[in-house]
## 1
Amino acid sequence: MKRWILGALLIPFALSAQKTSEQTIKSDIKKVKLFLTAGEMTHETPIKMSKGRNKLIFSGISAYADPASIQFSATGVYRIVSISTEIDFLAAEQFNPRIKVLKDSLEQLKDRHQGNLDMIGAYNAELAVMNMNRELGGKENSFTIAQLKEAAEYYRTRTLEINRQLSKINKEQQLINDQIADTRYQLTELNYNENQRSNQVIILVDCNEQYTADAVLRYQVSDCGWAASYDLSATDLSQPITLKYKAQVYNNTGNEWKDVQLTLSTGDPRLSAAHPTMTTWYLDYSSQVAQQQNYYEPKKAQYDYRVQAENEINLANQRAYDNYMLDKDEVANQRYARNSMEWTAISSGRNPMSNPVQMKQIEVSELTAEFLIANPFSCPSDSRPYTVEIKEMSIPATFTHVSVPKIDQGAFLIANIVGWQDLDLIPGPTNVYFAGNYVGVSEINTRNVSDTLSLSFGRDTKLQVARKLKTEMSTQRVSGNTRKDNYAYDIVIRNNRNVAVKVDVYDQIPVSRNSEITVSVDEIGNGKKDDATGEVKWEVTIQPGETINLQIAYAVKYPKNAKVQMKTFRTISCPSF
């Protein structure tokens, strides 16, 4: 008997020892490591650990978080039992107090709406009673003319009062219906936005003692990224160029980033855990075929969580739509009945997988580059690009000019950078400035670039270029069955700068594809001709204020009855009347 009593007394202690201590943790994102098409979020927060089992519920996590990437660490001695995730369908109101305010407003509007319906019913009942008694008691009752006038006056006055009240109430009802419609729409939109961060990370931890731990939660999330952009400026040909390295950052994770420590990375978070395998490395001229790296191929399993996230968010959005849009009050829904297709599109057409940010393919170095942003960074979850300055560099460069006067009678300034590989550049658009003036938009493309990276600074107006036909030496003659056309051109370049400039001038000799058509070169001076393409290149140095002349001349022979197109044309637009 004593043993039974002792056992009964120990049962509550055993049960209390197995009791799980549960706490919900709301913590902001402290660090963001942003890859080109994904990001790693880091939460840091103190947690009071209880002795025994602890159930830690991290709320407000993006629904696009990859469950397989979740990592938890903390100070002290503990043992992780399990890590899981689940969607909290009631989280929207907790994270956005405006939802409760709107819900209260919606209930007040519905009460007013119902009160007006009651008034309309009462007035209609009174009109019905009056219509039933308008025969004034029946044919057996006789009334005097004064009594008839008095009764008619009453019915007319009262009916007019009722109709005026009904008109006033109906007008008010229309206004209330519009307010209900707007409120419901706002509630649906707010719930959709909050559902994107309705995820919860649930961690079971066993501890041997009670203590306060500094906990860190990390996970990877999609629907965020960055793209490179640049500002390229130069003041003079003798000075280094200034390159501002910038990033366009977007966030569509559902979580706002507030004063986070931002790191930008060119790495790929989807790398396989398996070691890489090499394939045969083939070399060819101007090969555009990239070497395959199985190491970088994303696995299908890594995207399965996105399908589950889509289904869960769609379910949460449908619940919000059903709660706020599909009310049983048909009168309040008259406005929605007229726009049922529109509301259906709002509810079911928003696919979390359809990213509004357009993607493009670029090629970056296999060596990952990371940039730690010095200042805290904030960014809402709205898919819009926000500019972040990465770094500003002063780069030594040599300037040359390129001119192709046959196509464009201008000279283009080119900056040549040696050792650009150390700058960790990736492809991106470039705003170009020279001498304080905006030149235009260029593109930095590191694909197939050798030791020297060439960047265009646009046209240099201080170099004048002209290409003219020498009519006295351009003739057309017929001899027997053969026709011979001679063409000669003068290329004139003047340097109006106060320093010497190097100019690469390009022109061409036509290349025949027919054995009956022969082309001979009469004059190219010091130019170098590529026999395969017919391209002629002159490398000249022009002193300040100097003008130089280059000549190119060639002859074409072909049968006199044949038609050979010697002129080239370009296509432009013009008005059509």
## 2
Amino acid sequence: MSGSGVEAAIDRVSSIPYYNQLADRIRDRISAGTIAVGERLPSEGELATSWNLSRATVREALRLLEEHGWVSRIARRGAFATMPPQRGWLLHGREGFFENESRRHRVTTAVLRAEQTELPRFAAEALQLPPGSAGYVLERVRALDGNIALYSINYLPSRIGRLVALSDVPTGTGSLNATMHQAGYDVAGASRTVEAVTADGTLAQRLDVPTGAPLLKIKSTSWNSDLVVFDHHEVWVRSDVVHVEIQVGAPAPAHHPSPAPEFGRIASP
């Protein structure tokens, strides 16, 4: 296992830390079966030489892989490839889709639209804004390991949209959840509906499924600890790629029509 190949090479000008890049390379090879589960990885020194990295960087990459279940380190024997246990994604926990799933899968995002525009009436109402209010619309398709998993549209107040527009989210490389967290908007609660729908022509094209294919549609409105609503989104999920688990959370804010928000987990099969 070496870093000499063009695709595998560490990007020396990327803002992504070297240890993250190395961990991603090793994880991708375990996930693809190039490194078999149970196979012993090269030593820290061998990896450092092969990838032209410091041993400290290699050690941090292995620590990260072990933390996320991709590597098991045994004293005096070395590091061995493992497969992480099946886990769900808490939709409105502190982590977003990218942060959680990128630990076990290659997550890619295609941004179809990212702009300030007049919000649809239903979105303005959900965000507790007057009809005709301007806001930020973010439309994306997300994939896991090359398999299209979901299509989503986020509607945000203009004040948050301006921050998102300046981030790397519109390029498809950044996390919306992390960007909002950095701006001080953490999810304290959410009201959610989940329904079974079928793909019309547009959804079928977005999600690469036949027209009429079964999908799960999730509508969610999120608020922070001050009960300020800051995100409304709709997500269409391919149930053949991800599964949804629902858990009941704490009561919703008094001003919100939902008596009790639901917290969902999405897990890849």
## 3
Amino acid sequence: MLPYVRNLLTNKRHNNRSVFISMLISNIVILLLPLVIGFFLYTKVEQIMMANASRSNLAMLEQLRLTMDNHFKEVNQLAQQIVFNPKIDQLLSNDSTEDRYSEIEFIRYLKTYQKIDSGFIKDYYVYFQGSNTILSPSIRTDSQTFYDRYYKYENLSYEQWKKELLESYHNMHYLPTARILRDGGMGMMNNQDRMPINVITYVHSLPVREVSDIRGSLIILLDEQQIKDRLKQIEAANQSAIYIINDKQNVILSTTDEYELSSALFDKLTNPTGLFDYSLNGKDMMVSYTTTDEAGWKYISVMLKDHYMKPVYSIKMTAFGLFILCLVVGVGFAYLAAYRNYSPVKHMVTAIMQGKRTVTRPSGDEYEFIRESIEGSIIEEKQLRDTLSQQASVVRANFLSRLIRGQVDLSQIQSTESLGFLNLTPFVYSSYAVMVIQVDDASHFTHNQSEKQWALIRFIISNIGMDMVNEGHIGYDVDLDRDRLAFLINLDDDGQGTAADELKFIAHSLKQVVETRFKLILTVAISKVHESLEEIGEGYEEALAALDYKMIMGQSVIICYDDIKDTELHYHYPIETEAQLMNLVKSGDFENVEKLLDNIYELNFSSDKLTPELGTCIFFNMVSTLLKIMNASNIGYGGMEEEGIFDPIKQIQSSGTAQEMHEKTKRFYKQLTRLLQSERSGHSDLLLADIKRFIDGRCTDPNLGLAMISSHCGKTPQYISTFFKKASGHNITDYISRIRIDQAKILMENKALTNLQIAQMVGYMNDLAFIRVFKKIEGVTPGKYRESLSDDTVYEAETT
């Protein structure tokens, strides 16, 4: 370029070289003016970026503070509900462990407080110094057992833990993170529950208003991992180290041990929030912090200043590079602009030749060359327009989708010009309606339900439906989903009010043709007839609302919005019915359970007056009854699993119709009834064996009777008597007598023993009762029986 500029300046055809130089200098000056302005703007932008980076860092800490404040409110709420519980003063004043009823009641109260737990609180318990008892939502034990088996602090012995945590004064005090060892007490049945955990301990001495007379403590264990997860979000976002310190400048928790915070740094944390430079380990750092009001903690973010300033440095280098680039390019542009002022045609031809990749300059007129180039550009533009026109169908579908939802400015769409480019006919009639078609089942049409097949299904329904609609009306189809489409219909009712009947006729005809010829099962929902285009969005919502009633009315139906307005806002499932259902399930009578479920279904769904929402609530209530029975019977979910995890709520929600929900509910109850029958059978065998074993071991005891046996089994005498009769087929008194008589017959072989002695040895107080029972069972008196034994002996001796 430089030789060409030199030739240009010395060319005699340009006799006024100073004009070219002046124009070049003027262009360079014009170029430098925005560059100077840009430099000043850059300095402002750099300041703004630094301020934004500071605000962003503080905003992250503030977000962490707000999140933690919410969790601290949960902790304070839990602590207040426990320490102000009326039962706690009674338990604190009790110096013995005999008041078990109050302790059980208090444990029940503790279980109710678990509802406010969001995962931030790992566990909590209350220590009562007088009785040396610890109560938690799941256990009651003494402090030594609790420390050894449940929460053993790694850095504290039992005596230190008891003295410093349980018996010292603490007022809403948070202790630094500590590692707890768990040996696997009750409730810790898997290996995960035995793993050591890191917790932050919240301690509040009891009673609340006492400072010196400490009689107990409330301990709440906060999950350190929950806090670390929130800290890692900030740490990953800005690659910083996060520290949490309490009001005593103790480090509660940190994400790294690389930097040790000094007291000099703590002295700079005087404001509730702030940002400052600081040197740690010989490195320049940016320190930002904020303070929480709930616990008095400070959240500190320590980040390398180079990383903090990295975006600013990057922008600075980019701006400097752009400045140099703009300067170089601008100088070249200034030269080209000056050159174009004196040689526009030549420059234009050169540009065209570069674009056309022409080897030689045109030999003819340069203007003709320019004209031909322009004509070529026009042809290329036409081809581009043709390409755009091919996308008109996509634009049309998007427009109709927004129109049917009421998201279009209707003031501009009624003219032919406004709709012509979308290939739409203006609406000329005064009545409008929306029809939504749902494909319920396409398995008889095709087994390969791919996107291509679904597109074909929508094409078939759309073509048939539009042919029917356009016979006397104006209609457009809109694809809503893979198995759903809608018709926007502009109805010509001739002023006779027949639009609603015409819609039903179209829906019935469409459904009959599609289901008969193509084996597609359809559900059609129809909105009300509206008198203005502005109400189309409302009509679409009405059609969707009507389609929801498919759950009540089933599949393959036509649902009009006008037919569902008179709905009932209550359903039949009284407490008496629920109690009856629970009793039938517990008794194992599934036949009557099924009848009762069918009766509930018929009472609620036979009239089609129930809303889909209330219909779903009925089944949720019946599933709730199922879960109540399982909880009351201590039935685990393992026996109820079919494929995967037992989740009845999710299975009910995934059902499409009320009939499907009803069948699933009956299946749930059938599984539970059989499970209860199975467990009851196994329990009966164990109980019968236990009773017989007890009788065999105590049959010589004169006091053995129904009262002793029922006391041993923990059941009522009436229950034991009825159960034994039903399970063994014998009266329990007769069974005891039979065991005693069998032993007595063995003892009678010893002639030295009298009947009184034998009676007392087998459990009778006197020989009269023994003789009466013996004769009742054997049919003869003990004396006669002994004589028969003597005769048998003599006979055996003679034969030998």
